[in-house]
């Protein structure tokens, strides 16, 4: 089975040893994604809704590179630093996935790698 790694170009990929996404056969796994733009700037500071929207758009871009779309997503995993803001994360997630309805999890965690990150999302897509 052919393996295709997709890079975002982030400096951390080489240091940590990961890819933005990996496609094997008809499955695409997307690594934990945070609200950071191509210049390493945080998007949506202290705004759970905006961070979630930005991340899902970022996930959509790598899916397109892999020959897929959000419609192919079967699971998302949301790691959040403040579960009391679940409605903000959920509203943004719902705007993209209300008709697709993948399996999902929203899990509160102690923190992410940078203090400004409020949410990190992973996704699995099957073609």
What does this entry show, briefly?
Helices cover 29% and strands 29% of the residues.
**What best-fitting shape do the alpha-carbon axes yield?**
globular
What is the gyration radius calculated from CA atoms? 14 Å
- Within the largest sheet, what's the order of strands? 1-2-3-6-4-5
Distance between the termini: 15 Å
Question: Would you kindly provide a written description of the structure presented here, covering whatever features stand out?
Answer:
By secondary structure, the chain is α+β, with helices and mostly antiparallel strands. Helix content is 29%, strand content 29%. The protein has three helices and six strands, in the order βαββαβαββ. A six-stranded mixed β-sheet has the order 1-2-3-6-4-5, with helices on one face. The protein starts with a strand and ends with a strand. The mean pLDDT is 96.
């Amino acid at each position: 089975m052919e393996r295709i790694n997709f890079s975002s170009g982030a400096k951390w990929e080489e240091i940590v040893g990961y890819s933005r996404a990996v496609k094997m056969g008809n499955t695409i796994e997307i690594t934990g994604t945070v609200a950071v733009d191509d210049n390493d700037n945080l998007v949506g500071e202290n705004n759970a809704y905006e961070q979630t929207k930005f991340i899902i758009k970022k996930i959509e871009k790598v899916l397109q590179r892999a020959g897929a779309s959000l419609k192919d997503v079967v699971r998302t995993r949301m790691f959040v630093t403040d579960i009391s803001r679940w409605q903000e994360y959920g509203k943004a997630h719902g705007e993209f996935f209300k008709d697709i309805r993948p399996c999902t999890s929203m899990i509160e965690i102690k923190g992410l790698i940078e203090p400004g990150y409020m949410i990190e999302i992973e996704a699995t897509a099957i073609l």
